[in-house]
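Reproducibility note. Readers wishing to regenerate the assembly model reported in the main text can use the exact inputs given here. Chain order matters: entities are listed in the order in which they were concatenated for prediction.
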Amino acid sequence: MPTPVITATDLTKKYKDFAAVDGISFEVAPGESFGLLGPNGAGKSTTMRMVGAVSTRTSGSLNILGLDPDEHGPEIRSQLGVVPQADNLDQELRVRDNLIVYGRYFGIPRSILATKADELLEFAQLSDRAKAKVDDLSGGMKRRLTIARALVNDPRILLLDEPTTGLDPQARHILWDRLFRLKEQGTTLVLTTHYMDEAEQLCDRLVVVDKGTIMAEGSPASLIRDHSSREVLEVRFGSDRNAIVAEKIKDAGDRVEVLPDRILVYSANGEAELTKMTDAGLEPITSLVRRSSLEDVFLRLTGRSLIE
Amino acid sequence: MTDADRGSSVSRPHDENLVTGEISMGSIRHIALAGGIRPRRWGSWYIAEHRILGMRAYLQTIIATSIGNPLVYLFALGVGLAALVPQGIENGDATVSYLAFVAPALLATAAVTVAAEEATYPFMMGFKWNPIFYAMNAAPISGNQIANGMFIAILARILPTTVIYFLIMVGFGAVPSALGFLGILTASFTGLAIATIVASYTSTIEEDKGQMAMIMRFGITPMFLFSGTFFPLTQLPVFLQWIGWISPLWHGTELGRVLAYGLDEPAWLTAVHVVFLAALVIVGWKRTQLAVTRRLNK
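Running the prediction on these inputs yields the following structure tokens for the assembly.
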């Protein structure tokens, strides 16, 4: 691996006695797309703020682009693009002005910013909204503008905290497309998400985080391979019967998970498990065979669902 | 590659090298160190620039109040109320017209009102309603620079307000002394003192439960009434005069009077006015920097 652009070792952030981030270690290579996957409150955003050099760590070491954020916060931030969880565009300014004003923070001259802003608006598919008020943009447009703003300084690392939370499916896909282009251009992406499809789409490698610690690390495919089966059979027998049936099929497949509304059977061959079940006289109300996802990995690792 | 693709890609000269490893970490470190130079040096001014641009959103209100306020107040008090005080106000062995007496107070009040306005909602907004302070801080701008930039922008709004006010005062014949124009600076400085003290508090407000309305109603308005604005502070019973002594507005008003018509007061007292206001600016500014920095670093 080339020299990492981010190296965190035993990174910890405590608020009084509560450890929001409890000694996590990871490295991110240049050009890599790295994800932190975990439920709300897992410590992802806190980690992002420390990596973003705006939140001081309690202990551990952190090195970004060869610099320590405690001493070189502004220098590190001059090379980062940050897309926060909640949009913080300036609603008093027009769309294009938001980009120009933000570019000034990096010391970029206005003459360069004028061209840059137009280029970014095109990238974000917002050229026709350049003079619009931020308030008049849809959620997806605001998100794209926030990403465009984060690119104004040609960042070496782009930090995205829950980039598509709250967006409709179409807006999410447009955004993924834009992020994918950046990834193709070689931008290092670090993103947090609690959507496993997003992590699977965008991340080369990710860590599963829960309660401030790292539960597992690897590529989406390797995490699924290591912590789950190839397929999953989902069956529903009705909420009052699920538990009774689960007892009868507890040895099915590699493993059985009982959720409040359904039973998951982990197996290399979901169809075969379903046939066995029906042969035994157990007829589910609904059944579905699907490939394993990161959601299953998370369930396996923590015993909890990602979105609760 | 289609034209559309070309158009939507962002030029990023360094990345190709970064991926192929042609740029060493040492070079990247140097580039980052260089990237911090301008923001460290000019960051406060960038914030001021941003904030002044934001004021364009309510520019019409700013212009209307800057011109309307002095006209209304000077006419009502300096001309209307002054008719009830034909003998004027004592100033040592002489007297001064009520218009000349009240005008410096109104000038300082105008600065204080603008300052209080800009030190309340914009700070609350920056942290909460339209949290741009976090966006600024995610760029290479520090909490201290955000506070500095906000105060520079507040001054940039106060100064034209006081200049316009002063010109209208001159138009009303309310400035007997040639040194009166310096009152623009003392009034603005008084405004800055209020801005820094108020902002050091508003920067800490997590939830607006009416605190800002309280600042206006129980802070700024009573200060306006008890700072020797309409009558000399000595007219108040002694047990109420302390309100004036701790009021930045009183100190600012008295300074303005010294300059506008040569208020008869000992030199040491004039010095106290300056020192008092300067102390407030220093303490308020520093405390605001601390509050903003602390709040951003969570």
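We highlight two features of this model. Confidence is low (pLDDT under 50) at residues 1-21 of chain B. Chain B has two domains: 1-35, 42-296.
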